[in-house]
Amino acid sequence: MKLFYKPGACSLAPHIVACEAGVALDLVSVDLAAKTLPDGEDYFAVNPNGYVPALDIGDGPVLTEASVVVQYLADRNPSSGLMPPAGDPARYRVQQWLAFISTELHKSFSPLFKPGTPEETKTASRALLDKRLGFVDAALADRTYLTGETFTAADAYAFTVLRWAAPMKIDLSGFPAVMRFMAAAGARPGVRQALTEEGIAA
Ligand SMILES: N[C@@H](CCC(=O)N[C@@H](CS)C(=O)NCC(=O)O)C(=O)O
């Protein structure tokens, strides 16, 4: 399987899941500004939306959407615990977090990265993130990871997105449980492996 990625972007989430699950990936870096691949090919031919992640599973069009790609990879190795089985209420708890991370966190960070975003929009995004971080902090108060003591696909996605707080100058010190989560997730061998392979390990 080929993962189209950019170092540190949301494509890090499926990369972490693959490392945690022991699923082998071929990594293909995408120049998101030029929308090209290392061989000069047009990335729009891979993903017409032009964004990462995209996963070539060798069967039809690439899979896209970080919250779905992580589930596909986690399900390659059910014993990893990254995604509980269909029908288990625990699976829908993880999916609830995946949807929350995608729509409430990821998409609130996005305007902060975009050149030309009006200051007013950035201020609104920061205010919303502050509220949502409070929610995540409260959820993590009595547990290591989002749904308990088991690291799941949702944790991989949350870790990926919350890493953006530092470059966006969002201070996490008021969210101690989030800081503990980042330290615990960041110390996992699978997470270290993905960061190292993307050339962004601290
Ligand atoms: N809806 C997509 C959005 C993915 C996304 O925002 N990707 C960013 C990197 S984190 C990207 O590739 N941006 C470049 C672009 O949209 O041109 C998902 O949930 O996976």
UniProtKB/TrEMBL annotation:
Q: What is its EC number?
A: 2.5.1.18
Where does the GST N-terminal domain start and stop, copy by copy? Answer: 1-81
Domain named GST C-terminal: residues: 87-202
List GO molecular-function terms, semicolon-separated.
Answer: glutathione transferase activity
List keywords of the entry alphabetically: Transferase
- Domain of life of the organism encoding this protein: Bacteria
Q: Which Gene3D superfamilies match?
A: 1.20.1050.10, Glutaredoxin
Do the record's keywords include Transmembrane helix? no
What NCBIfam families does UniProt report for this protein, alphabetically? PRK10542.1
Question: What is the protein's given name?
Answer: Glutathione S-transferase
Organism for this UniProt entry: Aureimonas pseudogalii
